[in-house]
Design goal:
Elements: E1 16-20, H1 49-58, E2 65-69, H2 79-87, E3 94-99, H3 104-114, E4 118-122, H4 128-135, H5 140-152, E5 156-163, H6 172-182, E6 185-190, H7 208-218
Parallel strand pairs: 1-2, 2-3, 3-4, 4-5, 5-6
Helix pairs in contact: 1-2, 2-3, 3-5
Length: 223
C-alpha cells in the first residue's frame, strides 16, 4: 500500500470492491451449485447492511466502484436501501450488481432510482429447454424481460455467458448476433473446475480461440 491507496504486487491500484451480500440463490446452475445439497448461512452470520456500509467506507483507499454479488443479490430484502447508502459515499463513482436476472424486472426501476448504475446479467442460452437444464428453473422469459426492463430503466448492461461444450457451445454465434443487434456487451466465460456437481472436464471447455474463430467465420464484418 502506498500514498493511501491499495496496490497489489504489480503496483496496480485497487479501484473496485466486490461484496457478496448473500449466499442464497434462487437458481441451481449446474456449473455452480450442488443440487439438493446446499446449506445456507444463518442470517445472523451474514453481513448486515450497516456492516457492509462500514466496510465500504473503510475501503476508501482508492476504491471507485462497488459491485454486489451473491448468491443472488436481488433476493436480499430492501436492497435499494443499501444501494442508496453506498452511492452516497464520497468518491464512489458507480454501484453495480451481478444477477441471474430472475427478479430484476420487478426491481430495475427502483434500484436505478436508488443509485444503481449497471448490471451484469447471467444468460447462458436462448432456448427454454436448455435454460431449465442449466439453471433448474423455467425462467428464460423472465430473464429476457429483465434485460429489456433494465435497459429501459437506463442501466448499463453486460451479459455473462458461461460456455460449456455440449450444453450451449453451439449458441456462441447467436450471442454475438444478439450483442451486435441490441448494443449490449456479451462476455463469454470459460467453464471452470469450480462446479458444485463435479461434472467439469477439459473436454467441456470451449476456448477463447475457438469462440473467436466461430464468430469470425459466421458473422460478416465482425473484425
Amino acid at each position: 500500500m502506498q500514498d493511501d491507496v491499495m496496490t497489489d504486487g504489480f503496483g496496480r491500484v485497487a479501484r473496485k470492491l466486490r461484496i457478496s451480500i448473500t449466499d442464497r440463490c434462487n437458481m441451481h446452475c449446474m456449473y455452480c451449485m450442488p443440487y439438493n445439497n446446499t446449506e445456507w448461512f444463518e442470517q445472523d452470520d451474514v453481513l448486515s447492511y450497516e456492516e457492509i456500509f462500514n466496510l465500504a467506507i473503510s475501503a476508501d483507499l482508492g476504491i471507485k466502484k462497488i459491485r454486489m454479488t451473491g448468491g443472488e443479490p436481488t433476493i436480499r430484502p430492501k436492497m435499494e436501501d443499501l444501494i442508496r447508502s453506498l452511492s452516497k459515499i464520497r468518491g464512489i463513482e458507480s454501484v453495480s450488481i451481478t444477477t441471474n436476472g430472475l427478479l430484476l424486472r420487478e426491481k430495475a426501476k427502483q434500484l436505478k432510482e436508488a443509485g444503481l448504475t449497471s448490471v451484469n446479467i447471467s444468460l447462458d442460452t436462448f432456448r427454454a429447454d436448455r435454460f431449465k437444464s442449466i439453471t433448474g428453473i423455467d425462467g428464460l422469459n423472465q430473464v429476457l424481460a429483465s434485460i429489456q426492463t433494465a435497459d429501459d430503466a437506463g442501466l448499463k448492461l453486460k451479459i455473462n455467458t458461461v460456455v460449456v461444450r455440449g450444453w450451449n457451445g453451439d449458441e456462441v454465434v447467436d450471442f454475438a448476433r444478439f450483442a451486435r443487434s441490441m448494443g449490449y456487451t456479451v462476455r463469454f466465460i470459460e467453464f471452470m473446475p469450480l462446479d458444485g456437481r463435479g461434472i467439469w472436464g477439459s473436454d467441456l471447455v470451449v476456448s477463447k480461440r475457438e469462440i473467436i474463430e466461430r464468430i469470425n467465420r459466421n458473422i460478416q464484418g465482425y473484425h
